Structures are given as structure tokens and as C-alpha cells.
Amino acid sequence: MPKIIPGQRGPKGNWYINQRTQNGFIHANQHLLRLNRKDGGSRPAISVELGKHSQYCHYVEVWPLTRDIA
């Protein structure tokens, strides 16, 4: 009988291991805030920008200082 050995599926990924060194910005989108107030919507009005990427969200926690809600 042949001996079965569990396979290795290549090297593990090494992206997103280092801490981010780019400046981050927290931006409150006034247009979306007004639209939410006007029609009662729930669009995410806060965007966190790191480099070229933006992440939209409803609240931001800046550890250990505060929690911002829009």
C-alpha cells in the first residue's frame, strides 16, 4: 500500500503583515448626510481614506480616543 502524505499548497501569503505607513483621513460626506436626512435613508456617510483606497462606514472607532458616529 502506498503511504499518503497530506499535500502542501504552496507558500503562505505575506501581504498585509506590516503596519500601514500611509496617512489616513476620516471624511464625513455632507451630500450623503443631507440625503439621509431628507429621505430617511441609511447610506454610510463616513469614509476612511488610506492612500488610494476608501472604505465607507457608518461609524469609526479611533482607538483609544473616541467613537465618531454620523
Q: Explain this structure to me?
A:
This protein has 70 residues and is α+β, with helices and mostly antiparallel strands. It has a domain at 24-69. The protein is built from 1 helix and 5 strands, in the order βαββββ. It has one helix at 30-39, and strands at 24-28, 46-50, 53-57, 59-62, 66-69. It has a 3-stranded antiparallel beta sheet with strand order 1-2-3, with no helix packed on it. The longest helix has 10 residues, at 30-39. The protein is elongated and about 75 Å long. The N and C termini lie far apart (65 Å). The mean pLDDT is 82.
What is the topological layout?
Elements: E1 24-28, H1 30-39, E2 46-50, E3 53-57, E4 59-62, E5 66-69
Structural class: alpha+beta
Content of β-strand: 25-35%
Q: Within the largest sheet, what's the order of strands? A: 1-2-3
The whole-angstrom Rg is 21 Å
**Coarse morphology:** elongated
Tell me the distance between the termini: 65 Å
- Which whole number gives the mean pLDDT? 82
Give the fraction of residues assigned to helices.
10-25%
In total, how many beta strands?
5
Main sheet attributes: strand count, strand direction, barrel closure: 3 strands, antiparallel
Quick tags:
5 strands, alpha+beta, two-stranded antiparallel ribbon, 70 residues
Could you write a compact summary of the structure shown?
The protein has 70 residues and is an alpha+beta fold. It has a domain at 24-69.
